[in-house]
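Consider the following assembly input.
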Amino acid sequence: MTLTLTLRTEPPARVLAAPLTPEQLCGRSAAAVTALDVCCGGETAALGDLFEVSGAGAGEELVLVGDLRRFDGIGAGMSRGEIEVRGDVGAWAGAEMSGGVLRIIGDAGARLGAAYPGARVGMTGGEIVVTGDAGEEAGAGMRRGLVAVGGNTASGAGLRMLAGTVIALGSIGAEAGLGNKRGSLVSGRPVQPLPCYALATRFRPPALRLQLLRLRELGLTVGDELVDGSWGRWSGDRTELARGEILIFQEDEEEGT
Amino acid sequence: MSSYTLGTTHVDDTFAEAFPMRYARVLITAATGAWALEAARSMTGFATSVIGCKCEAAIERTLAADETPDGRPGIAVLLFAMDREGVGKRVLERVGQSVMTCPTTACFDGLPGAEPTAALGGSLRYFGDGFQASKVIARQRFWRIPVMEGEFLVAESVGIGRGVGGGNLVIGAGDEDAALAAAQSAADAMRGEGIALPFPGGIVRSGSKVGALTSKSMPASTNHQMAPTLRAQVNDSLVPDGVGALFEIVIDGVSEEAVRESMRRGLHAAAAAGATHVTAANFGGKLGEFHFPLDALRDPP
């Protein structure tokens, strides 16, 4: 049976929600989960005060329900299992995660799947899927894994990423891929890359096709035009290795216009 | 030799003798089914017998777009060799020369999760001369190799399974045309999931015996006992009375059961299509681990 945490009421301050991962919670009884503490502002709060806890985690699936915009670090550091969030989340969701699937049905705040301040390496594996938008610097410092949003990412996506993939089915936003070494950034809508990126060609990337089909499996709505279409490949950051890329969907120009 | 009949077809009470082999299943996709087929035909060319080709390979089946990892039309290929190193080397050579080179293709592992594995993209990536890149998608690693068309996408490795090689049926009739028609019907019925018929069209006309009468160095030579033109020339001919031509169908399969059921389909299809005699090749039962008695195939599929 899936362990489900349903928010009772909006907390009085921001909550550091990093303990909310399958490895921390699953396998515990509902009563044991209720008794766990999290940081709420400068205080501690019992999970049972914030959430109604139901089910028990024999498996490795955790469901969080409610408007969790005041909860930072949901799924941070998770290495396995699955979290589904039915609502918006705060900053640092999936930060430095290394495995598993974090699915957010809603919007995510800043630094989604990113490295913590001072750390060079962020996410090293796993998949983060957001049906809505994500805030600034999504996927910053990523080494491996996938961050995908159904809408847009705000500025600075893929900042100093080492490898891995950040996909925005909407727009990847401004200043994407600054300092990117080998990572892939994907924008489903036209965007002007930074000057440190140069256009290579327009083609149908077979790996992206596979990734987009994977996103459908993970619950995102991906149009056939993106799966079958042509993408512009911009190489950069040319102040780094120039082995990274930004793939930008190119709508076919209508014939005769 | 004792026999039983299926309709008017005499079936010898003998058995086919087969051997343990290792195999890989490679999924080839392309922009069109026609290009996937080109790649698959090239990859499975010159792969009729481990004796001369180092592997045995054939198209297993056509895959609809919704059956493939990348949602494009595809072909499943089975490749068999005597050991896992052999499978790994042959898959690498053949994907490198026949699939990577073919327009629009991508190449996937058809045995995901199988152990052990052999490197595919993990070795082929060096063709990318340092410009290759990897992606982990749904916990599987792929390599993107830049090529003149764009990129070739190939799985990091392929799983290796334990299979059975060398199941067979020998199908005879009054003349070449009748025997070939019966053999073709049998081959069509025998193909299916888990089955590779590695010879041209699934059919071999030059069945062989181990060694040679005239040489100590030749590993194999013509099966003179089953050659109708030698019936009046040799003392040990096994060509049945009334038979003017014989064809053999060799079957490699992913399991003993797959081979047995393929033989069952083939035997009954051959009988229905006018074969007058069906028998099977063996080595006296001492060499092969797997025996497939024709007597056990009496019941129709």
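Residues 1 and 178 of chain A are 43 Å apart (CA to CA). Ask yourself how this observation constrains the way the partners meet.
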